[in-house]
Amino acid sequence: MKHSLLPKTVLSLDGGGSHLLIQLSVLACLEEDTGASTYDLFDLIAGSSSGGLITCLILGRRLSAKEIIQKVLQERLLEKMMAEHWLRRLFSKLQIHPKFKGDSKNLALQTELENLRLSSLNKRIFIPCFNLDQDQLEVFTNDSQTDFLLSEIADACTAAPSFYPPVQMQDGDWRIDGGVGMNNPGLSAYLHAKQYWKDYEIKMLSIGSGWRSFAVSGAKACGYGGVQWSAKGIASIILREKMMANVRMTEEVLGNRVLYINHYLKNYDMPGNMDSANNPALQQKALDIGKLWYANQREQIQHWIQN
What we know:
It is built from 15 helices and 8 strands. It is an alpha/beta fold.
């Protein structure tokens, strides 16, 4: 029975801050190649952190990747979400306040997503967040017990620690960015899809936002304590390696039914910081990187589509 049915398609989007423009650029190329919007190409979209923001805009507003890019470049959506906290500017080196104001992001997302709720969606959604009150990772899906607003889901899933304050949602619980535990939601999204569509084959396109690189001298690290390792980005190194392990497991489980697109940012002279939205030159570079990724893997992408 499985092989007589058309497979269900899943799109998985890693977190990556303002590097989401790389992912959007890849999707815009896919839309141009197929003549179909991202909304029409996939049955389930999963996104972590900034990937969750893209997911809410595509599934809620049915925006194409090209239209979201226009919102970022022309309507300055990311800049509206990234209004810097004045205390942060004053005490920037001490890092005793979130870098950006939560209310600015909240207002921008309410404006974009209005009163859309989970119950308004006609396609499947999968967005992880970390619930501070429950001390555990949770996932927002169409089956979530509370019919949350998409704007508050997008607000919570992008509340990256040190960048934004936690978000209190309508059930009273406080959440932060789910990327702290699931920055690559691919494998979990596949298992969710498999449970929902038991009689279907599942195929997945998974898109990253660029691997960060970390140069650490082993000789110098012999004298490092917690402060030095923190300054060298040990938390980000752990996150990256967990993501890589998750990608390998996903490829092991799905085989040729999954295509993962991601590369090291250093290969494209792109900085690893995730808050470069206010820099037009880096925005354009991110779009160019996405086009290059697509061009380099166009044959694989077309084979994945045809399969």
